[in-house]
Amino acid sequence: MNISTSQHLFSKAKEVTPGGVNSPVRAFRAVGGSPLFVKSAKGPHIFDEDGNRYIELINSWGPMILGHAHEMVQKAVSDAIQNSFSFGAPTRKEVEMAELIVEMVPSVEKVRMVNSGTEATMSAVRVARGYTGREKIIKFEGCYHGHGDSFLIAAGSGAMTMGEPDSPGVTRGVANDTLTAPYNDITAVEALVAANHGQIAALILEPVVGNMGCVLPQPGYLQALRDICTREGIVLIFDEVMTGFRLAKGGAQERFGVTPDMTTLGKIIGGGMPVGAYGGKREIMDCVSPLGRVYQAGTLSGNPIAMSAGLAMLHYLNDHAEVYTQLDQTGQKIADGVRASVQKLGLNFTVNQVGSMFTLFMTSQTVVDFESAKTCDLPLFGRYFHAMLERGIYLAPSQFESLFFSTALEDSHIQTILEANEAALKEAM
Ligand code: KE4
After folding, report:
1. Catalytic site residue 374?
2. Is the CB of 157 within 6 Å of ligand 1?
3. Topology of the domain covering 71-319
4. Is 131 a catalytic residue?
5. Has domain 4-69+321-428 been given CATH number 3.90.1150.10?
6. Residue 239 known to be catalytic
7. Using a 6 Å cutoff on CB, does residue 243 contact ligand 1?
8. Can you say whether the dihedral through the CA atoms of 415, 418, 422, 424 is positive or negative?
């Protein structure tokens, strides 16, 4: 494929932006080659600056669950723009958004809007510390909760591909307050709790992990964490920035029937616009300024244009339960098809899938945590990624990322994806 315009733009970008991108994983460093510069998108397709069309399975890392440029979301934004962009004052749309989130997400009694998933998780941890008066947190190796200092310890996502999970610039003091445990290992959590008794403010996790690739909680794991946190007075935070409104309209907490004390949200909540949120039990959220003493603020929080996009998206998802049936079917079809090709080619690779989240791991191990995810053959994944790109399928440019399917994928697209997958696996081996 001719990608000369993207290559030219990338060389210009690298002169004026670190690594030529505004978020590390976009730079293709984990798979090699030069990143595509996207010009437009519609439905299941993106179009790069050289006019190449791809069926895309990133969907802006989750938000575009209804496919790109959905007319319902676009109309909501174009209508909102007529009333100007931002006021820095309360608006009725923020009330509507908060009421809708409270209705849709089981754990949320009160919610605060912010502008990214990182802001949501940083704020939720601060509130948990303020509410409990405790300082330490537990996170899990391979889970990613944005780029807040407390979380860049054994982080997933781009941090994994950078080969330095503990980022420079994170102080020893911050790192000392972040305890880590392997995902899916309850014994390790019990040991941390015993060794730090009465000092742990919060336990934060991705209830289904997307950021080491898609990794599911093993049966009983989430409930066991819930029980430990209830027993110890630890605030259980489900980071549903990825899974929220995707795995069910109430997110993973609805799908798995386990209710945390707080939830962080992002991605889909903004319909493609920069929106995050954190919420939970009333008694915890009432600690937040100006009602409580835990300070958190934001110039563009609850921005009316972003609220319009998010409200259009969430109302649609809340009113169309069939979306989740379709997404589950799409995920199952693709997982079954990829597993069939892997078996046909005599490859012993692992497929993890739940709903519209999916990862093909280039390892024979069952992938249940950070250590097993790291056994993947990364050079092989890079060759597979580019073989798929050449066939017009745009995957996440890292083995340690989940794919996200949208309702814009029809059977014809799924067939194209599966044919390309089998050919790309053959080529890459
Ligand atoms: P943002 O600050 O990027 O909006 O959200 C951070 C975040 C928090 N929690 C979870 C579970 C997340 O997945 C994320 C962000 N996800 C990555 C994808 N692995 C965003 C892509 C990127 O970093 O460019």
Report:
1. no
2. yes
3. Aspartate Aminotransferase; domain 2 (3.40.640)
4. no
5. yes
6. yes
7. no
8. positive
- Per-residue pLDDT reduced to its tens digit, 200-221: 999 999 999 999 999 999 999 9
Cβ of 279: how many Cβ atoms within 10 Å?
Answer: 26
- The SS3 call for residue 213 is strand
Angle at 64 between CA 62 and CA 67, to 5 degrees: 135
CA 211 to ligand 1 center in whole angstroms: 8
Q: Give the amino acid at 349.
A: F
Task: Name the amino acid, one letter, at 361.
Answer: F
How far apart, in Å, are the Cα atoms of 15 and each of 8, 9, 21, 38? Answer: 11, 10, 11, 19
Phi, psi of 215 (to 5 degrees): -130, 125
Instruction: Judge if the beta carbon of residue 401 lies within 6 A of ligand 1.
Output: yes
pLDDT < 50 stretches in the chain: 163-164
How is the chain split into domains, by residue range?
Answer: 4-69+321-428, 71-319
Domain 4-69+321-428 and domain 71-319 have a common topology: no
With CA atoms as reference, report the closest residue to 119 among 350, 317, 303.
303
* Alpha-carbon dihedral angle through residues 87, 90, 91, 93, given to the nearest 10 degrees: 110
Predicted TM-score (pTM) of the model is 0.97
Pocket lining: 359 vs ligand 1, CB cutoff 6 Å: no
Distance CA 288, CA 147 (A): 22
DSSP 141-181: TT----S-GGG-SS--THHHHTT-SS-TT--HHHHHTEEEE
* φ, ψ of residue 217 in degrees (nearest 5): -70, 140
pLDDT computed for residue 82 by the predictor: 97
Question: Using CA atoms, how far apart are residues 316 and 354, in angstroms rounded to an integer?
Answer: 22
The strand pairing partners of 111, in sequence order, are: 279
Cα-to-chain-centroid distance, residue 237: 15
For residue 166, the model assigns a pLDDT of 72
Mean model confidence pLDDT for the chain: 96
* Model pLDDT, residue 161: 60
Which residue's alpha carbon is at the smallest distance from atom 1 of ligand 1? 117
State how far the alpha carbon of 315 is from the alpha carbons of 75, 259, 281, 320, in Å: 14, 22, 23, 8
* Confidence (pLDDT) at 163: 45
Question: 234 and 201 in contact (C-beta within 8 Å)?
Answer: yes
Do 214 and 352 touch, CB atoms closer than 8 A? yes
